Amino acid sequence: PTYYEGEGFPGTIIDAFSAGVPVIATDWKYNKEIVAHGENGYIYKGEIEELVNILRQLAQNPDELLKMKKNCIKEAEKYKVENVIGTLIKKLEMD
């Protein structure tokens, strides 16, 4: 987990989602806005025991990852340039 103060939007999360890979992220900065706990990944408080429990749960239930894969790809669509640029242009035209 990173706690670098200057880090902004966690692009690696979107990269993972684009590949259909669920993310385990700490509850830091904007991660909660992107990672929906149990839907496309997991958010944890940063305690190692909690991370170990999540990993054990996934090892015991690998089908859970397959279910999340579709959710990851769907979430990544929101951040594609062609989907974001229209919103940006509309916002610029309103100002």
The share of residues in helices is: 55-70%
Radius of gyration: 15 Å
The average pLDDT score comes to 89
Structural class: mainly alpha
Poorly predicted regions are none
The helix/strand order is: HEHEHHH
- Bin the strand percentage: 5-15%
Read across the widest sheet, the strand sequence of neighbours is 1-2
Q: Tell me the overall shape.
A: flat
Number of DSSP strand runs: 2
Largest sheet: 2 strands, parallel
Structure annotation, total helices: 5
Amino- and carboxy-terminal Cα gap: 37 Å
The quaternary structure here is: single chain
Describe this structure in words.
- By secondary structure, this protein is mainly α.
- It has five helices and two strands, in the order H-E-H-E-H-H-H.
- Helix 1 crosses helix 4 (62-77) and helix 3 (48-60) packs across helix 4.
- The model has no long low-confidence stretch (mean pLDDT 89).
Write the layout of secondary structure elements.
Blueprint: H1 11-18, E1 23-26, H2 31-34, E2 41-44, H3 48-60, H4 62-77, H5 81-94
Parallel strand pairs: 1-2
Helix pairs in contact: 1-4, 3-4
Summarize the structure.
This protein is mainly alpha-helical. The chain has helices at 11-18, 31-34, 48-60, 62-77, 81-94, and strands at 23-26, 41-44.
Give the tags.
95 residues, mainly alpha, two-stranded parallel sheet, 5 helices, flat
